[in-house]
Amino acid sequence: MAMIIGSPTRYIQGKGEMKNLCSYADNYGKKLFILTSASGRKRVEPAITQGQGDSEIVYETFNGECCMTEINRLIEVVKNAGSEIIVGIGGGKIHDTAKAVAYYMKKPVMIVPTIASTDAPCSALSVIYTDEGVFEKYLFLPSSPNMVMIDTDIVSKAPVRLLISGMGDAMATYFEARACKRSDAANCVGGKCTLAAMNLAQLCYDTLMDSGVQAMIAVKEGICTKAVENVIEANTYLSGIGFESGGLAAAHAIHNGLTAIPETHKLYHGEKVAFGTLVQLVLEDAGEDEIMEVIDFCTEVGLPITLKELGITEVNPEKIMEAATLACAPEDTMGNMPFEVTPETVYAAIMGADALGRYYSE
Q1: Sequence ranges of the domains in the chain
Q2: What angle do helix axes 195-220 and 239-246 make, rounded to 10 degrees?
Q3: Dihedral sign for Cα atoms in the order 57, 58, 63, 69
Q4: Looking at domain 10-156, does it have CATH number 3.40.50.1970?
Q5: Selecting from 1.10.3720.10, 1.20.1090.10, 2.60.40.2470, 1.20.210.10, what CATH number does the domain 160-361 have?
Q6: pLDDT tens for residues 39-70?
Q7: Does the active-site annotation cover 95?
């Protein structure tokens, strides 16, 4: 099997870039279909209008879930509008929905994060949920987005919890890529991990350890420092390329399993992935120093390390086993671990991670 690395055609990150959106999109067409939330439109439309020129824009409000019902609805809207390029502005579910719509309609797609809460923007992947928000499937796409553009002024003014969630998602990148490397598993683009992807995954983790706390403090004050710029790049680009071209393993499978427990639905993707990373390290019987570095980082920035912090105040063994069983579904990524994993071992690892989290947080 060949080594393959996936990447968006162009990645752009800087302060005040939103006003340049139409000029960047001009390479693909003048008729833009922008998918965003109602609040997101209020935040970005003035800057986009400033640089609109002769581009035509149709805005559509996202219904809140990346599901086939929403994707099919939007396909009809785009057909009626005659748009040439799909633009997803907002967070991970908007990005995944925009990518799916563009894929089914064979149109170019531009992804514009207004938050740095997931590594979805750069990937050739959409995570599809049911209408009720339970994980359904991964939609693997033939290519990464045509363009990813980030206005760091806008991202740095988003609620700090979103940046922290992105750090939780990005933190898993190195550990999952390492597991895939050890098991010689295929990555998310159908090849083996390159040296570049593995090093980007390592750089992602190192950047979080070096700049994560500083970035969190700065964003709490609504300012964009160099540490914030570093973490935005780690959360978005380094993690995006690292997870897709390195591969996914237990941490994200645990996240998907946790979607079976309704109490966790109010948490962000990266918050659940952070706990999934701790579970993966317990599964691997990782060294104490490594586990403690992850626990200390999560504690310092405010990522969950216990079931209680995930919203599960009353632990029901049957529910935890249900989550563990879903995490081991054949179509998920638990099979990329370098040893056999069963629902029973995942159940034990979840409970073990929770016990560690409680021990070190008391």
Answers
A1: 10-156, 160-361
A2: 150
A3: negative
A4: yes
A5: 1.20.1090.10
A6: 999 999 999 999 999 999 999 999 999 999 99
A7: no
